[in-house]
Each structure stands twice: as structure tokens, then as C-alpha cells.
Amino acid sequence: MKAKIIPFILLLSLILVLTTSCEDTTFKEYKGYAPVYMTYENLRSAVKTEQNVDLVNPGKIYFKDNYIFIIEELKGIHFYDNTNPSLPVKKGFVNLPGVIDMAISGSILYADSFVDLVVLDVENIENIHEAGRLKNILPYTMPKAGNDFPVGPVDKDNGVVLDWKLGTVREKVNYNGNHYPYFKMTSDRSLGANFTTTLGISSGGVGIGGSMARFGIKDKVLYVVDNNNLKVFNITNKTAPVQSTQFNPGWNIETMFLTADKMFLGTTTGMVIYDITNPLNPVSQSFFRHARSCDPVIVDDTLAYVTLRSGTTCGGSLNCLDVVNVKNISSPVLVKSYPFTNPHGLGKDGDLLFICDGAAGLKIYDASDPKNITGNLIFTYPNINAFDVIPIGNVLVMIGDDGLFQYSYSNVQNITLLSSILSLKE
User: Fold this and answer.
1) pLDDT by residue (tens digit) across 274-316?
2) Which neighbouring-strand residues pair with 230?
3) Is the dihedral of CA 197, 201, 206, 207 positive or negative?
4) CA pair distance 130, 109, nearest whole angstrom
5) How is residue 375 annotated by DSSP?
6) Mapping DSSP to helix (H, G, I), strand (E, B) and coil, where does residue 314 land?
7) Where are the alpha helices (DSSP H) in 272-397?
8) For residue 214, what are the CA distances in angstroms to 61, 242, 339?
9) 82 Cβ neighbours under 8 A, 6+ residues apart
10) Nearest CA to 245 among 222, 266, 273?
11) The whole model's pTM is what?
12) 383/300 Cα distance (integer angstroms)
């Protein structure tokens, strides 16, 4: 009996050795950022309205029916009654993890929530609630981690990455010494109206976003761009969007600006133009190339205004404003380029051009002569970090690291600060 057992044990040992040699794994430990997960279940049950939530890390802004919506980056959306721009009234905050962008059609707000597209009913501003959701329709994105230590591996099956925790990372390494890949993401972060008292968000019309927007609405169609894709949703049934198509209009798409029949996409290498006469079927028109840089874009009649900035993941070293003639939509032509410090978002109302020049502040120009814009500076507010603007009926709504600021420009010779909502910086 023993003679039969010994050979079997030897054979089993040989199998174990061979198996181990083919699938040998070990672990390495190092100081780095480990992902902090939120499960998909918790993500999809997180939407709720709260009070007394401070504005800390302001992101993009949106305006609809005298209400201002401010994104708290990756956390949720603050909303204010702006019937009196001199005294905006905070109405609440909706918790929405992973939010970066939004757009409103009627009383329905569309926003991203990490991998999901969420539909919120905002008709009753006192009772904002989830009205629909498309799951796993958006790319898997993550908040940025620090640059001082490596980022540990991410397992998407565990949920979305809510944050990063600095500590000891234990990482699986395969038999040939190559570690499994880890993921790292860095990110960056118009019209006239009269102010009248409103009781909530009306069921008609589309709101106004800033120049940094990646969500846009045309008739019954919602457009959403990420780095490399344009997604087109039919929102005939507003609470149940249906994806109509998706395609790649270019690489590293940054922003979207819509006119009556055109879509202008700002990318790191140029401006892409589409015809959206048929909103569900955007048709490529042309591409205006510029040096590699981040580039928000707005369009007024036959002129496009594009800001290019350095110091971001977009690459490039240019900091300037390009004015582009788009009268012949198939062949855009550069009119003139102007140097700036670090320009971000921009807006235009009539001949007034508003430029957020980053740490150099807010600058307002008379742009009636596109070949002499910087020679006609009207107003500058240098002691603020400016990110984006929305001009609305002689009131300029501006967002930046320091919070939300509103200016009256009804008298361009005496532009005045109406109000501010300061952020509590972390």
C-alpha cells in the first residue's frame, strides 16, 4: 500500500510545482493612493435633496427660469433662486455623486453620475427628485489623485471610485515581474432675459449653460460628449432618454457650443463643426486646427471665439484668444490671435466679450472690432480666479474657485458687483 501512495504523492508534487511555475504570483507593497469605492447599489440610491450644504469646490454653472444651478464637483448640485441677482437665495442641494455636467429641458435636468446618465425632475424646486436613469451609459471616470505618489490598481467590479486614500497599496504582480496596470486620471475642471418672479422651473424651454459645457440640448435631442465620443439621445420622452447614436468626432473633446443649426466642439487640437439641422443626425462640416491646448469656444453670428490655455493635461504652452471667421462654415479662417495669461471660459452679449483669464481674473472688452479686441478693455477684476461666465440680460454670472459672482453691466462705464456666494475652500 505504501509503495502505491509514494509515487502518487510525488506526481501530485510535480503537478503543483508545474502549476505554480506557470501561474506564480506575488504581491508588492508601496506607498500610494488606493481607491475608495462606492458600490453601484449605493450610487444608484444616493440622490436626495439636502439643506445647509456649503459650496466648497464649485464647478460648472447653469441658468433656467431665474434659478442658478452650481455643480459641486463630483458631489452634487446647489440651486439658488436668482429672481433678485443682488440677493440670490439658496434653495437647497441635491446629492449626486460623480456629477460634472448638466443641461435642462423644460423642468427636466440631465446630469452625469459617474457611469450613469441621471434624469432629475426640478419642476418643484423644493422637491427635486430622480425621474429616470440610464445605467452604464457613460465612460468609467475617476476623481484626480495627488501627483506625489503612484496610484494603485482599480477594480471596476467594486463600484465607482469616490476618492483616493494615501496609504500602503498592496498590488498583485504576475510571474514575470510585470505589475497589473493602474489607472490615473487628472481633470480640469449665451442670451438675454428679464428677471421676473417665478415659483419653480417651467415645463418649457431650454436653460443656458456656460462655455465649458459638455452637455447640450437642441429641440428634443440631448448631446453628451466625453473625451472621444459624442452620444446623441432622443428625449421626446423627457424622463426616458433613448440613445440614438454614438460616434467619434475627434480626440480629446473639451467643450460643446450649440447655435440654431450648428454644433461647435472644442478639442485639444482644434474646433470641430457639425450641422445639426437634423438634430438626431449631426453632419460633419469642417475642422479648424490650432496648436495643442484646451479650448472652450463660443460663436456669435459669423465669428467664433476660442480660448487656448496651458498648464493642463491638454498639453501645449499657448495662452491666447483666437477669433475665427466661420461665415463660410466649410472653411473657417483665423482673423486674429490675442495673448492672455491663462484664459478659460468666455461669453458674449452684443459687442461685449467676457473672458475668464484664470488667476488673472475677469476681463470685459468691447469686441466690436474683432481685429482690436484687447485694445478696447472696458473692465477688469484681477483679484479673483475666474472659470466661466453666463451673460443674462445685463447681468453677468461668473463662477470661479472663489465662488459665484454677479455683475451688472447695464452701464458699461460703471460695471458693478451685485452679489457673491463665496466658496469654503478645502
Assistant:
1) 999 999 999 999 999 875 556 789 999 999 999 998 755 555 5
2) 225, 247
3) positive
4) 9
5) G
6) coil
7) none
8) 12, 18, 25
9) 63, 66, 67, 68, 88, 195, 397, 406
10) 222
11) 0.87
12) 28
